[in-house]
Target: Secreted protein
Amino acid sequence: MELDKLFVVIQLLTLQTVSHAIKCFTCASADYKVLFERFSNIRHSLHIPRFGELCDNFERLHAFAPALNCESTCISILEPQYFGGVQSTNRPYSYIRGCAGKIFSSVQNRSPEVDFLHTEAICLELPLSLIWPSIETDEHVQASLKHCS
Model:
């Protein structure tokens, strides 16, 4: 992997409907807490999630993360964790989980690809700064609502 790129995979989570409302788990890995405190766009898009390593474990989400009503699709953003150019075997990804509508709420002049992520299973590459404009970077992320091949 090139050091100048950050890969994030967004996966569609199981949707739960209760009275026509979608419930999504809202949490983030502990290493995102600093970004949450530093960037207001991320703070507004994540509804003060719980931070911790239990967010990394889908089986433990029910006990750890609150399930909030959402008007959009539930997504998970998976950021691969590399140390010395090798992906970590203990913790291969960091996670952000929540409602697509909230996570992408700070995106102004959204590209068609970002809007498409709200509804369809696609795989695309886009700048991380397109998701959160306050993070000024040219790094590209791989965004999808399905596994990218």
Q: What stands out?
A: The chain has a mean pLDDT of 67. The first helix runs from residue 33 to 38. The chain has one domain: 9-144.
